[in-house]
Write a structure and sequence with these properties.
rod-shaped, Phorbol-12-myristate-13-acetate-induced protein 1, 49 residues, 88% helix, mainly alpha, Noxa, single chain
Length: 49
């Protein structure tokens, strides 16, 4: 039985587009989280005025 890490490594080596897609998804997730955080902070600050 192969471990998930071994499968990921194999896909990364043989399919660089898979690794690229994974990295782009992570970047997008981080940006989405930051935008949601900024929206929440701005909403909290605007509600006080």
């Amino acid at each position: 039985m192969t471990s998930p890490e071994a499968v990921k490594l194999t896909h990364s080596l043989w399919y660089p587009e898979v690794e690229c897609a994974i990295q782009l998804r992570r970047i997008g997730d981080k940006l989405n989280f930051r935008q949601k955080l900024v929206n929440l902070i701005s909403k909290l600050l605007r509600s006080g005025t």
